[in-house]
Input
Amino acid sequence: MSRIESRFATLRREGRTALVPYVTAGDPRPEVTVPLMHAMVAAGADLLELGVPFSDPMADGPVIQLANERALAHHVSLHDVLDMVRRFRQQDSDTPVIVMGYLNPIEVMGYAAFAEAAAEAGVDGVITVDMPPEEADEFRTLLLARGIDPIFLLAPTTNDERIRRIVDAASGFIYYVALKGVTGAGNLDTAEVGQRVSHIRGMTDIPVGVGFGIKDADSARAVAPFADAVVVGSAIVRQIEAYSDRMETATQHIVALLKDIRQALDSGETTKVERA
Output
């Protein structure tokens, strides 16, 4: 059982929803990322999603695109991101870490070399936004052989045939994109999200996390009854952007946000929708 599977199994027994914050590695400076990861865990994060800076991110909105630019200005590479995970593991051997990014840097490194380096660093899951499951067999096999979960995205527009293909390829959890757009765009229609997640759950036993549009305690609380995890990204990155020259202040705001969301998720005011 992978670290991600183990964490979700524990949370399910406890009737709790996972809190998964996202930050772009190296934003606004490389030295702040690992301390921020630890601070987010202390604030209640169950898993961490660490973005690999990339020049042409297709799923990310303006907030995270700018975070990529700030990190790339410091020449943060995929190797640097893995080194950050390695340093995080020196103090935290329990919290699952998911690396999220795009295929190009991985292809440059080579699938086998990346899988080996990611496993050695302590990576638990990989989201490769622009790798469709039809082309993922080799990469998926290399990851699974090293105990790393390949995590795939599902969109509101994904049809049933493709849902089945994706859930068959996925491991760890499914990432449901709650909005028809990029990160940080629009407002959540929680009723529609609930219906879609319920439909997905009818096709798989893998946990389903919901991201894109979770920005505060209220939106997290609204999604919690039917989600196994809530992913918070742009709301966190906005704090880094606003206080990029005062990371202590940014971290305080991020910790406060995550504590509010954690309290909302654990408040007892939400009732989990049982799996069919």
